[in-house]
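Page 37, top half.
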Amino acid sequence: MKEKMAVVLVGNENEKELIEVLKNVKYVELRIDEFLRNFENKDIVNWIRKIKRIGENEIIATVRWYKEGGENPFYIPDRKRLEIYREISDFVDIIDIEIRSKIFENVNEIVKSKNKKIIASYHNFKKTPDYKILKKIVKKGKNKLADFVKISTKVNSQKNLFTLIKLTYEYSKKIKLIITPMSVGLIERLILISFGSYLSYVSLSQKTAPGQPSYYDILPIIGNT
């Protein structure tokens, strides 16, 4: 199970705690947009280097687009987001960029030129769209040669959850899918892993999505698998 976990960091974590935590997960997501609420742009690369020194994790870098940032997004202009992605591309393994973002193609070019991996992502904090819409998003990501397609939507009913399960089951053998249902419990999140979702995200010092479990919620399961 540890191979399927990504711990989300925002920059204010305790280093001693990180040393222990990063041993137990394969992936780390650095939410650079959240980091910039409290730190300067010049501090980003040093932060990444620090995380690399602490653990041997695959590092996902995310500078979330404010339009897919939830209830309290941190606004970063697209030009600045692109500059950040270009600056950090040598230091990370995977870059997450929203497939609907205007800078998607630019970021995709940077990622491919550096032989890194890309997550083409879609987030909806209000609802889970119709199955046909989600299927189009997956196919678009596949056509853009994304290494992963991530879909994170708010689940308002059992039908929404079944929609995500169906999508995962049907397409996870065709492309690496990361499906994260929001506003649900731990069991519902893990169900998607069992149907083929490649990753699940856990928080450490700060939740970045509704219903996101903490690392300590998932630790007993990681410890037994």
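Page 37, bottom half:
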Amino acid sequence: MKQFSLKEKVAIVTGSLGLIGKEHCRALADAGAHVVVSDLDEDKCLEFALTLTPDALGAGADVSDAASVAALLKKTLDRFGRVDILLNNAAINEKFEDPLLACQMSQFENFPLSQWKKMMDVNVTGVFICSQIIGTAMAEKGNGSIINVASTYGVVAPDQSLYKTADGRQAFFKSPAYPVSKGAVIAFTRFLAAYWGHCGVRVNTLSPGGVENAQDDFFVKNYSAKTPLGRMAQPSDYRGAIVFLASDASSYMTGANLIVDGGWTAV
């Protein structure tokens, strides 16, 4: 079990304040890591860091801004002197101001270019920037683990029938932007794994399944019916996978995509 220990390791988690981001932070802290909580709102990062361990660091950062990420690295090095783990968790999903137009605007034919660009900027370019700036420090040190969070939608196409109500009405369409961005993350993982393998930096992807989060009843029912385990994920269901990928327990694993989805992509 010592292989799973992260004692004295330093872990930066982007998107720390999101639905599963907080659980990622808790899992790493429970395994012994010094956790750097990072998201857009620095005050909330500082507040959440206080709930982890006495030495956890809260640091606001915009992953799509290189200067902001460089400042995040500096704060981390000033406090801890190194970085051992980078968890690229920050991401956004499609969001429409008018719920009444969500079905129409989420159709591929109508999907706004502005939303496509914004999602790529955060979900893909953000992973690139964090990996380039923070990962380089790890490569120069000669070891480290980068974990990129993708999605089952980076592996298989969205099932649009999941978004149909009980009476057969299409409430929403899953847009092309999110799946494309997550597929890019998986491809980028393979690139980095091959590029930095000789430097002792391992790079892997975690592809989670859908997490239950007060969605409409029809969606939860549709999703659960398609999943062999018969339910959506809980935010805590990814804690073990995160610790595994971050620790020496996965020391011979790089360039891989660990799918944790209750069997959703198996059928």
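Margin note: The chain has one domain: 2-266.
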